[in-house]
Design a protein that fits this description.
Elements lengths: L4 E6 L5 E6 L3 E6 L5 E6 L2 E6 L5 E6 L4 E5 L4 E6 L6 E6 L5 E6 L4 E5 L5 H12 L5 H7 L15
Antiparallel strand pairs: 1-2, 2-3, 3-4, 5-6, 6-7, 7-8, 9-10, 10-11
Length: 155
């Protein structure tokens, strides 16, 4: 038996549809073929994509919102602070704000402060104690060559 669909959202490019099911699954669908691209375990009640399509947000009955990296299918961050179930989620057009609405009739807003590329690279260098490999660079910084990305100092 198919699970009740709690929420749906199209990716900005229109190629992917995400569904949040009552069975605790987030499903990514290929819009053209109708085929399932991926199934993630996440009991979400509301879903949306960021404007650039790189992040997918999922709101939950425990009041949290998880921000998923679309490319790696991993959780980038968990937003908390709500006491009631999340029934709606939205990114601001400038990608620096995020809002979640709940069954209690309230809306909470978060400021999303993402590091600048140089700051992110410095953090990676500190954590790994080395520069990115070519494979890592192509996966996490697609379309960017070694010359376009600052390398680790001392790495």
């Amino acid at each position: 038996m198919a699970a009740v669909v709690a929420s749906l959202a199209f990716s900005p490019d229109g190629h992917t549809l995400v569904s949040a099911g009552a069975d605790g699954k987030l499903r990514l669908w290929d819009v053209t073929t109708g085929a399932s691209r991926a199934v993630l375990t996440d009991l979400a009640s509301a879903v949306t994509f960021s404007g650039d399509g790189r992040t997918r947000a999922a709101g939950h009955d425990d009041g949290t919102v998880r921000l998923w990296d679309v490319a790696t299918r991993t959780v980038r961050a968990t937003l908390s602070g709500r006491r009631q179930p999340v029934s709606a989620v939205a990114f601001s057009p400038d990608r620096h704000g995020f809002a979640a609405g709940g069954v209690d009739g309230t809306v909470q807003r978060w400021e999303l402060s993402l590091p600048r590329p140089g700051q992110a690279n410095d953090g990676i260098c500190r954590a790994l104690h080395r520069d990115l490999t070519e494979h890592e660079r192509s996966r996490y910084l697609p379309g960017r060559t070694r010359d376009q990305v600052r390398t680790c100092t001392g790495a």
